[in-house]
C-alpha cells in the first residue's frame, strides 16, 4: 500500500450553512493512500451544461464574470440546480464539478440545496477566455482577478470541495508547468491573506500513462506552492475497451506512489464520430482495482448532449429526467 504525504481530511465546520463537513488540508497521514471523503470515495458527476462554444475568446477586460453557462446561480431562469438535487442523490452522488462559475451571481440557494443532500462542489477557477493558454502561456493580472473573484464568491460555502486552477492546459513539463504552479501559489497566498479556510487547490491533468512532466512538477518541493490534489482526465473507456486498452491499468500504476491525493476529474466515453457508447464497466475498476491509487472519480456527465459523443445521465427539456438506461447502469455500480 502506498503512502500519501498529504491527505484531504474532513473537518466539521460550525458555519450556519447546512451542517455539512468542510474539506481541508490536515497535515500528513501515514496510514492513508487515498482522499478521505466522509469515510468513502468520491462518487462524482460533472454538472455543467456544455458551453455553446468552448473557445469563445477573451471576454471584456473589465469583468471577471464568465460567459453564460454557470449551472449554480440562484437568480437564473436557466438554472435547474434545485430540481436536479434529487436526481443527483438518486445517483449516489457526493461531489459535482462545475466549470464556468460567474462570481457576480448569487449561488447560495443552490449550494444550500446541495449541502442538504451532502453533495460537495469542485469548482474550476477558469472559464472560456479565462485560462492559461497552453500555446502562449501567461499568468496575468486579468486571470488573477478572475480566479480570486471566484474564490471570494464560493469560499463561504462549507460544501465547496476545492478549486482547480486549470484543466488539461498542456503536457509540457517546462514552460507551461511554471505558469500553472504560479497560479497555485498565488491562490494559496490569496486564501491566507483573506483569512479564508484552507480550501484545497488542485489541477486537472490529462492522463498520459505516467507522472512525468506536469503531474510530477506540480506536486514536488514546497507544499505551500504545490497542488493539494491532482485530478486526472481519462475519457477513453468505451464499450469495446477494458482495463488495459483504456489506459486505466497504466494510470493506476503510474499514480500508485504519487505524493498527493489523486482522483479521476473526468471519466467516461469520449467517442466523437465512432459510434462507441458508454457501458460503465470502468466504474467497477475505479472503485475496485484502482483504489490503491485513486480516490474515486467524476463521471462525464450529468447532462445529455445532442452530439455524436453520446454521453449523459439525464434527458433535458423543461425539467431534467434521469435517462432510464444510462442512469440505471451507472447507479447500479455505486
UniProtKB/TrEMBL annotation:
Q: Does the keyword Transferase apply?
A: yes
| Topology with respect to the bilayer | Lipid-anchor; GPI-anchor
| Cross-referenced InterPro entries | GH (IPR017853), Glucanosyltransferase (IPR004886)
SUPFAM superfamilies linked to this entry: (Trans)glycosidases
Might you name a Gene Ontology BP term for this protein? fungal-type cell wall organization
**In which compartments does the protein localize?**
Cell membrane
**Physiological role:** Splits internally a 1,3-beta-glucan molecule and transfers the newly generated reducing end (the donor) to the non-reducing end of another 1,3-beta-glucan molecule (the acceptor) forming a 1,3-beta linkage, resulting in the elongation of 1,3-beta-glucan chains in the cell wall.
User: Which family does this protein fall into?
Assistant: Belongs to the glycosyl hydrolase 72 family.
Instruction: Report the protein name in the record.
Output: 1,3-beta-glucanosyltransferase
Q: Which organism is it from?
A: Alectoria fallacina
Amino acid at each position: 500500500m502506498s503512502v500519501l504525504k498529504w491527505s484531504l481530511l474532513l473537518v466539521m465546520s460550525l458555519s450556519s450553512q447546512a451542517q455539512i463537513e468542510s474539506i481541508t488540508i490536515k497535515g500528513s497521514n501515514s496510514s492513508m493512500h487515498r482522499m478521505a471523503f466522509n469515510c468513502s470515495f468520491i462518487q462524482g458527476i460533472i454538472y455543467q451544461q456544455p458551453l455553446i462554444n468552448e473557445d469563445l475568446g477573451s471576454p471584456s477586460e473589465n469583468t471577471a464574470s464568465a460567459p453564460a453557462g454557470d449551472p449554480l446561480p440562484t437568480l437564473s431562469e436557466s438554472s435547474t440546480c434545485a430540481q436536479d438535487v434529487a436526481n443527483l442523490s438518486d445517483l449516489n452522488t457526493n461531489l459535482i464539478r462545475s466549470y464556468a462559475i460567474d462570481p457576480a451571481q448569487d449561488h447560495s440557494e443552490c449550494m444550500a440545496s446541495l449541502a442538504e443532500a451532502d453533495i460537495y462542489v469542485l469548482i474550476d477557477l477558469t472559464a472560456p477566455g479565462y485560462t492559461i493558454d497552453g500555446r502562449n502561456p501567461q499568468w496575468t493580472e486579468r486571470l488573477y482577478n478572475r480566479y480570486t473573484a471566484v474564490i471570494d464568491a464560493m469560499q463561504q460555502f462549507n460544501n465547496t470541495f476545492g478549486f482547480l486552477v486549470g484543466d488539461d492546459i498542456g503536457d509540457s513539463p517546462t514552460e507551461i508547468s511554471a505558469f500553472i504552479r504560479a497560479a497555485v501559489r498565488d491562490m494559496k497566498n490569496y486564501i491566507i491573506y483573506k483569512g479564508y479556510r484552507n480550501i484545497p487547490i488542485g489541477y486537472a491533468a490529462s492522463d498520459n500513462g505516467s507522472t512525468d512532466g506536469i503531474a510530477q512538477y506540480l506536486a514536488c518541493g514546497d507544499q505551500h506552492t504545490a497542488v493539494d490534489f491532482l485530478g486526472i482526465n481519462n475519457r477513453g473507456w468505451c464499450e469495446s475497451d477494458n482495463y488495459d486498452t483504456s489506459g486505466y491499468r497504466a494510470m493506476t500504476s503510474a499514480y500508485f506512489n504519487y505524493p498527493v491525493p489523486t482522483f479521476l476529474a473526468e471519466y467516461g466515453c469520449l467517442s466523437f464520430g465512432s459510434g462507441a457508447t458508454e457501458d460503465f464497466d470502468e466504474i467497477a475498476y475505479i472503485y475496485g482495482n484502482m483504489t490503491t491509487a485513486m480516490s474515486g472519480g467524476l463521471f462525464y456527465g450529468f447532462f445529455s448532449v445532442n452530439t455524436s459523443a453520446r454521453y449523459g445521465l439525464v434527458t433535458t427539456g423543461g425539467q431534467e429526467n434521469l435517462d432510464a438506461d444510462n442512469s440505471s447502469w451507472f447507479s447500479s455500480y455505486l
